[in-house]
């Protein structure tokens, strides 16, 4: 999957499917399916562990399958201390605090059929690094599009043979 051009002015997000054909690039084409998730009752310490262990910056927060928020490494910055005493206090606080207290409860989200160009525009407008993909009728989480997912598409455009 490759974008057929870089958009500096309004243009469509599409890829060449074959000679003379273009296919629209949608959120479902670039999203990470079945992302690692957090729950509202998960401790901040556990969420931080997942973020660092998996080298990701965002965890969608779900209740059952329903998207209820998102938490990022930026939301949890205060849980890292600089001095030894601060670090001990930060760890204790992280163990007793829950994700539900720090998550963004109104995340920017898109549906799987959203044009990738619109996803980029939303991420830039709202200054976020990831957007959950959800079934907008049921609220069920389907995936997540991060800036890394979009950079992979750009990389394929710049170096199609790689």
Describe the structure.
With 162 residues, this protein is an alpha+beta fold. The chain has a single domain (14-158), classed as CBS-domain (Roll). It has helices spanning 27-30, 44-54, 84-96, 116-126, 147-158; strands at residues 14-18, 21-24, 32-33, 38-39, 58-63, 66-72, 130-134, 141-146. It has a 3-stranded antiparallel β-sheet. Strand 4, helix 2 (44-54) and strand 5 (58-63) form a beta-alpha-beta unit. The chain is globular, with a radius of gyration of 18 Å. The chain starts with 13 loop residues before the first strand and ends with a helix. The model is unreliable at 1-12 (pLDDT under 50).
Q: Based on the structure given, which CATH architecture is correct?
A: Roll
Uncertain runs are 1-12
- What count of structural domains? 1
User: Beta-strand level of the residues, as a percent range?
Assistant: 15-25%
Per CATH, the class reads: Alpha Beta
Quote the distance from N terminus to C terminus.
12 Å
Helix content class? 25-40%
Largest sheet: 3 strands, antiparallel
CATH topology: CBS-domain
Order of helices and strands: EEHEEHEEHHEEH
List how many beta strands DSSP finds. 8
Radius of gyration of CA atoms, rounded to a whole number: 18 Å
User: How would you describe the shape?
Assistant: globular
Mean pLDDT: 82
Structural class: alpha+beta
Instruction: Please give the count of helices.
Output: 5
Please list the strands of the largest sheet in the order they lie side by side. Answer: 3-8-7
